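Table 4 source record.
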Amino acid sequence: MKIMNSRQRLLTVLNCQQSDRVPISTFDLVGYNTKAWENNDPSYKYLMDFIREKTDCVCIWDPVPQVRFQTRDFEQPMLGSFMETGSLIAVDIDKYREGNSEITHITAHTPKGDVKTTYRVMDNVVTSWQTEHWCKNLDDVDKALSIPYEPIKYDFSDYARIKEEVGDKGIIMSMIPDPLCLTAELMEFGEFTIWAMTETDHFARTVAILHERFLQNLKNMLDVQLVDLYWICGPEYATPPYLPPRFFRQFVVPYVKDITQLIHSRGSKVRIHIHGKIKRVLDMILETGVDAIDPCESPPDGDVPLDEIKNQIGDQICIFGNLQPKILEHASVDEVERTVIECMQAAKAGGGYVIMPTSMPIHTPLDKKTEGNYIRFIETALEYGNY
């Protein structure tokens, strides 16, 4: 078979076809984005150079939502899912240092009263933790929904840069939430499950409202610019043991189907993100019409071996996965090699498979053991990924 470039290779497997070799993705470690933190951290330089040379880039890039707000000293991403549907809102922000962390308190003033959230960002860890969620009870949810809805406009001014940087070395993927994600993340995880199970009508009404708002925002996004792939996050909130499968059918299938049909109508592809136990919802995932799924975790992290997922849905959905971070961060290089070979044996046949870790390192500086294991993963995938 003719040697493909990375863009051709990824687009081929997204159609569940066989490319010249199995594409290799490093998840959130994006080789071709000069603004990404991993490409500006000296401890990651050797690994990122290797990733650029040897792998196939799925570049995670999002347009900037132009959310209206009334505040100063504001970092828009900190508002999280609360603002994903677009609203005119006044907020107060209080930031301070606490030990090795930066703490951010945000108070939003809604027509029905205030709601509050808190984030913690630790030094040398490239992520944030929401330690206080916006809503603690149903009254808070009603306060959040009382904020006047205003459709979001999106700034794509950075798109030309990212398109030029990625070129034929990969594809561009934007991350979008489903309405279950927008709803569930209003509350602390345990409280969200109680809300869904005990106040299901109220929960369902909230999901429906946020879906209607987000679908309009998505139309606005697609009207301006289309990227290669859209990554839907949130359906895992309705998988066992968190919620029973009937909730997946009610709160995931119809809404993700709507989102997928809209994106397909514009000519792009959809990938669904579901960690954990998916065995009892695999058939429902097919009903949504998505083109790809990740990370397809095998036991004990999930409940379906990769070869079973391949046999059950691999002719209809492209599979991304499933190297666990504990392997890449803590195992021996021999164990990494063995795991990569097992993945290839389970999912390579016939195409429609991208080998990929299920997450990425978030600590800096990068540990040398992790760096070495990533190198072995990529080298082994190149050796055993040919057809």
